[in-house]
Amino acid sequence: MAAQGEGGRRDEIKTHFGTREGSYKLIHHTECSKVNRAGFNGQTNPPVKVSFITVNDGTALSDRFCFNVGKELYVSTYKGVRKAPDLSKPIDKRVYKGTLPTCHDFNQHLKSPDSVLLLIGFSAGQVQLIDPIKKEISKLYNEEHLTDKTKVTCIKWVPHSPNQFLVSHGSGQMYLYNEELPCVQAPPHYQPFKQGDGFAVYTCKTKNTRNPIYRWVIGQGAINEFAFSPCSNYLAVVGQDGHLRVFQYNTMELIGTMKSFFGGLLCVCWSPDGKYIVTGGEDDLVTVWSFHENRVVCRGQGHKSWVNMVAFDPYTSCVGSDSSTDVNGSSVEVLGLTSQHGLGVGEGSNHIGKHDSHILSAQDHSPNVISPQHPNGRHMVSVNHNASSSALDPGATLSCISYRFGSVGQDTELCLWDLTEDILKQPYGKPRTSSVGLAGLNSSSTSLPRSNSLPNSQKSNNSVGYVKGNDVSINTYADGHAHSIQNAVMNANSKFATLSVSDRKDNSEKKEHKRNFSLAARNSDKSSVVKSNNNRMQDNAMKLYGTKACPRLDQVSMLEPLVCKKVSHERLTSVTFREDCIVTACQEGIILTWARPGKAVTDDT
To answer: Where is the composition biased (Low complexity) (predicted)?
Structure first.
């Protein structure tokens, strides 16, 4: 599992950690004032989210970032590892009254050095569109709470569309808006447009086209997050009912589904080539789902509490050229950034830089090669410094398959994971076993997958003991808490009895959720269709256990984190992989920048 590293107690906050490619170092942290962090009337502050955008001023690229904390929203210049953001002089700062910002998203297609479009979702259901630079644009949607009264859980611009955006709510409903259209002036009435297993789509009954254009009702309980695939054709949605659902976005067809081990799914992310989806949730696990095979490939155990966010690292992922295809049907070739100095982004004629010719647009690629999309919207071809000349030969056949992704959780820990070919190609039902707790294990223990195997001297880890029986596996951690994961022989009925989110909420929260959901339900007499679907879903959850959509513990491989470090005193809510650093955020609004190996401006020795 993760190496303890650097000695010391496990509850210490780490300022650096080592990986195979080198050492990541905490360069600086950004913290805003604590004055406006408190919520309203006892409201719990929403998770801190971070959004980035890169603009080209004609001579150089510059970054902007946005984050929310409590009542406040900040937009500032971001200089990566070079300099900490100065929040005393932000580009824009807003303090809201009566509602809290919950999520936000920049428009990556309509941008310039002096104008960017930013969407903001709020705890009372409203959506705001602003230009934080020009400050000339300010539009409000769902202002009167006529569409939905529950909090906005996720908001994103529709890829390649300059004016459409998608908004999900705690009611379990998702709405498509056009920023150029007005909103309805009365509670909307809907007519059914499409329905399927566990979801339904409605259109608004109006003489003239108004917002919302479409209303999706998905699953049972809140929609927690959604994400578009790199090719923009598919939409992955995770919710409090524990389901991942993957849709063909334009046709609104459900093409795949997955079920959490138990509890809700809180976060979702696509791999850069669109072949895999990683989720995290209330089962304390990360789960990898294969798009092409429509099945769970493996689970990852490293967190000791809910997983709040997962993200792939496109700069350290290595996908070989073979006969496999991405979701567009094109072969994928991405050379991983692996070098002795870290990620192959350091010195050398072939390094990847912001102004380097190796960053190519989609039209610059040959027809049979699709590179993963850069987080800033560009497409990227990465170069492996340690590769042999034959590997760099365009005619050579590559066999490297390795994905790096990260996760952060309520346990205040950052985990990095390597997903390698030996795990991905394991047949269903024949997992590659991996020891869950390393400390105290004897040499007869099953070894880790090669991607996560560490020298014995480095195998001190989060757990101080591991007991395995026929029915229950228990990790006893240094914090004194025992965390159990019951294996495949446990009765499926008791396992899925934990699915109900209502057990986690008090009566007032249940009443509020029911009231808000009922308001939307009254907008259409066709909502009974969705209710019947939801009733079937509870039965289907039982049937899914032990299938490819929700395999037992002994049916898929269990991943170990390459690194698992406590990097905050407060629960972590965001992780972003950038070219020169990793950015994490915690619930207190502290933004940490971790320089990649060889990327620190000044090296502390």
So the answer is: 441-457
Mapping DSSP to helix (H, G, I), strand (E, B) and coil, where does residue 145 land? coil
SS (H, E, C) 325-358: ECCCCCEECECCCCECCECCCCCCCCCCCCCCCC
3-class DSSP assignment, residue 318:
strand
**pLDDT band for position 471 (cuts 50, 70, 90):** very low
Residues paired with 68 in a beta bridge: 73
Encode pLDDT of 406-443 as tens digits. Answer: 999 999 999 999 999 999 988 887 665 543 333 333 33
Give residue-wise pLDDT tens across range 505-564. Answer: 444 444 444 433 333 444 444 455 555 655 665 666 678 888 888 999 889 999 999 999
Residue 275: CA atoms inside 13 Å, Cβ hemisphere, count?
Answer: 23
Of 202, 283, 275, the residue nearest 238 (C-alpha): 283
Identify which of 170, 168, 173 has the alpha carbon closest to the alpha carbon of residue 154.
168
Q: What is the pLDDT of residue 97?
A: 93
Distance between CA atoms of 336 and 344, rounded to whole angstroms? 8
CB 300 within 8 A of CB 420: no
Say how far apart CA 14 and CA 162 lie, in whole Å.
Answer: 42
3-state secondary structure of 573: strand
Q: How far apart are CA 431 and CA 557, in angstroms?
A: 4
H helices of 165-204, in order, are none
Neighbours of 451 (CB within 10 A): 19
Instruction: Single out the residue of 450, 418, 469 nearest to residue 286, CA to CA.
Output: 418
CA trace torsion 361, 406, 156, 212 (10° rounding): 140
Mean pLDDT, rounded, for 85-112:
94
How many angstroms separate the CA atoms of 68 and 74, rounded?
Answer: 6
Looking at residue 495, what DSSP letter applies?
H
User: What whole-number distance in Å separates Cα of residue 13 and Cα of residue 83?
Assistant: 22
What is the predicted pLDDT for the residue at 82? 86
* C-alpha span between 3 and 416 (Å, rounded): 11
Q: Which residue has the higher pLDDT, 5 or 19?
A: 19
| CA 514, 515, 518, 519 torsion-angle sign | negative
> How does pLDDT run across 190-210, given as a tens digit for each residue?
999 999 999 999 999 888 899
Distance (Å, rounded) from C-alpha 601 to C-alpha 25?
11
Q: Which of 363, 292, 297 is nearest to 328 (CA)?
A: 292
User: Which of 47-51, 179-183, 378-382, 600-604 has the weakest average pLDDT?
Assistant: 378-382
Query: What pTM did the predictor assign?
Result: 0.74
407: nearest Cα among 298, 311, 297: 311
Residue of 272, 219, 215, 271 whose CA lies nearest to 244: 219
**Strands of 152-157's sheet in order across:** 152-157, 164-169, 173-178, 214-218, 199-204, 190-196
Distance from C-alpha of 225 to C-alpha of 280, rounded to nearest angstrom: 11
